[in-house]
Design goal:
By secondary structure, the protein is α+β, with helices and mostly antiparallel strands. It is built from 13 helices and 36 strands.
Length: about 650
């Protein structure tokens, strides 16, 4: 499956001018990687850098090559060499690691940090346009520092047995990076930030569990290969921080996902969400099985639900607003399922991985192949409305290849994913009712703020409904064959007079939500939090309308206090993703019920089906086979069922 041709095409060599505080191993040109590859009208690809290009100076506003992609490309070549012993991959990894370490600052107050951008002639560009933080890019902890740790850790693990001198150099630079992380990030170990009332670890790199997870992957590889005691301590502390980002439960948003951003409790995104993979790696190296519990929650609880909702979207903010899907997000889900399956001995997660990996081969919103085994290209993504971006830049290429390497290591999974790639996905899962689509009365109004971004979340459809006391909103409900959870997305504010909303259907009441809470604000960029709140009673399947009425917080509360409703999430107790090809049907069922259920399944024709039921931790509960066209499949509370 793995074809390195396009990644090789993105590669280049450069001899940078001498620069104080920057050096590398040995002599000669350095390996680098072009950032983007734009598809031309004739089907060819042009390598370009980031930001506006100035032909007079042959420079870009950002640069031609960047540490983020150089580091991750090195990981691709290192893993390819480890699997196949390929001499070209070994040499490519060697060159890229030399280029990456030249970007690392070795002296002064920023020692250990990394400059992000390099121009075509090798000149470093510490302050890019547009501005990226930190600025200058080596003035603090960053995503590119985390990814440098990832590459150096895996590089040391490979080169220890190949080139002792180079491996020693990589260890020296990795220890320099760890020193930077100790003084800039881990100095806050044991301290907690408050984000709208929730305790969040203050020792995440760039305030991101996503960034931290990639450093943990490198530290785990380094420690497993015999790395230092201080690296082991850093690994344990960062892993502890990742584990603390687990949120929600079976019926509460975000449904046991690991949150990626330490400054918001309202955001989840697929890109870079390597937290389960990192926890799985750390648990194995540190012999710390407690780290697997949050990883299992994300992999066995949240990910099946995500797949039945449409797949690894770029942004649930908290409504699924940015439905773009890119290889960086798909690969993160695939690696999580495979890593946790191995570390926790949960082979059933590999069955879910087949549904994820099928994205590359056509089982996606566009119905188009996203990875081309003949060229090694992975396209740059699919928009929410199913349009493929046919460019093939470094990030997409890298993560597509990391996925292919994982599939090459699991041939039966690869075969299943390719077979499912020709399927047309059918979904019966998460639905969104936009608040402004309802019938408003009693003073309820649609408000369109100057910006949909709140600083920590985003208003769905760029607007919300303001409900003063006594006002109402009513929505028609899409037809259903089973009960559904209803989760109104409300602005939970610190104001104790914010009031309440009471929710009901034409069948019976559902419960009341309080719009006050989310205190203290702490390090959150904005007071309050935009959060889905699960109503106490599920929507009955026969309900045709949903109504909310704004009520005061108390008899003495201000009567004009508004309540803000963004949207309502509707989630069946059993969601379904069905992939149907000309010869087979594969079905994934995900539960948000707290009780066991049996879900009726009807196939196009009778055939032999194997029904595997897994609990909320991914452990196998039962397996049965049937040749019936219609049958009922058991689904465990908060678990998933796979039918093949």
């Amino acid at each position: 499956m793995t074809n390195l041709a396009h990644l090789d095409y993105l590669g280049a060599v450069v001899t940078p001018p001498a620069l104080a505080g920057h050096s590398t191993y040995g002599s000669g040109p350095l390996g680098v990687l072009w950032t983007y590859a734009d598809r031309r009208s004739d089907g060819s690809y042009a390598r370009i850098g980031g930001g506006p290009y100035d032909s007079a100076t042959n420079t870009y506003g950002q640069g031609a090559y960047n540490a983020d992609d150089i580091a991750r490309a090195a990981v691709v070549y290192l893993r390819h060499y480890s699997m196949h012993g390929d001499a070209h991959s070994r040499q490519a990894a060697y060159g890229l690691l030399r280029g990456l370490t030249f970007l690392q600052t070795t002296t002064g107050v920023n020692a250990g940090n990394v400059v992000l951008w390099m121009q075509p002639d090798g000149t470093l560009n510490p302050s890019a346009e547009p501005v990226e933080l930190p600025d200058p890019s080596d003035s603090g902890p960053s995503y590119w520092l985390a990814r440098t740790v990832w590459a150096l850790g895996e590089g040391d693990a490979v080169f220890r047995s190949l080139d002792a001198g180079f491996a020693a150099f990589l260890r020296e630079r990795l220890e320099l990076a760890v020193s930077a992380l100790e003084r800039q990030v881990l100095v806050r170990y044991g301290s907690w930030n408050l984000v709208d009332g929730r305790r969040v670890p203050a020792w995440l790199i760039a305030a991101g569990a996503d960034a931290t997870s990639e450093a943990v992957l490198g530290l785990a590889a380094y420690v497993e290969a015999g790395g230092s005691a201080r690296a082991r301590t850093a690994l344990a502390r960062f892993a502890e921080g990742l584990a603390a980002m687990a949120a929600g439960d079976t019926q509460t948003w975000p449904f046991r996902a690991l949150l990626p951003w330490g400054e918001s409790i309202s955001v989840w995104h697929a890109w870079g969400a390597q937290m389960p993979s990192a926890l799985a790696a750390a648990s194995a190296v540190l012999r710390a099985p407690r780290l697997l519990e949050p990883a299992l929650g994300d992999a066995a609880g949240f990910t099946p639900l995500l797949m039945t909702a449409g797949g690894p979207d770029n942004g649930w903010l908290p409504a699924p607003i940015d439905r773009t899907q890119i290889a960086y997000g798909v690969d993160a889900r695939l690696q999580a399922l495979l890593g946790v399956a191995t570390a926790a001995r949960r082979p059933g997660l590999r069955q879910v991985a087949a549904f994820v990996a099928a994205w590359y081969f056509g089982a996606n919103r566009a119905g188009q192949t996203m990875y081309d085994p003949a060229t090694g290209r992975t396209y740059d993504g699919i928009s929410g409305d199913g349009v493929v971006n046919r460019n093939s830049g470094a990030e997409s290429t890298i993560h597509g290849l990391l996925s292919m390497l994982a599939l090459d290591a699991h041939p039966s999974l690869a075969a299943q994913a390719r077979a499912l790639g020709s399927a047309s996905p059918t979904l019966s899962g998460l639905q969104v009712l936009e608040a402004e689509a309802g019938t408003l009365s009693g003073g309820a109004t649609v408000v369109t703020p100057p910006s949909p971004w709140t600083g920590e979340s985003q208003w769905s459809n760029n607007s919300y409904v303001s409900l003063p006391t006594g006002s109402k909103a009513t929505w028609p409900l899409p037809p259903a064959t089973q009960p559904r959870l209803a989760l109104p997305i409300i602005d939970v504010v610190p104001d104790p007079t914010a009031g309440k909303t009471t929710w009901s259907t034409n069948v019976h009441p559902l419960g009341t939500l309080t719009h006050t809470g989310a205190t203290p604000q702490g390090t959150s960029p904005t007071p309050g939090a935009l959060l889905p709140r699960t109503l106490p009673t599920a929507l009955p399947s026969q309900a045709t309308h949903l109504t909310t009425t704004a009520t005061p917080a108390s008899a003495t509360s201000a009567q004009l206090q508004e309540r803000r409703v963004d949207a309502v999430l509707l989630l069946p107790l059993i969601s379904e993703l069905r992939l149907t090809t000309s010869t087979a049907t594969a079905i994934l069922l995900a539960s948000v019920d707290t009780h066991p259920r049996r879900h009726q399944v009807t196939l196009a024709a009778p055939r032999r089906s194997v029904v595997s039921t897994y609990d909320s931790t991914g452990a196998l509960k039962s397996r049965l086979s049937t040749t019936a066209k219609t049958f009922t499949a058991p689904v465990a509370p908060g678990g998933f069922t796979v039918i093949l």
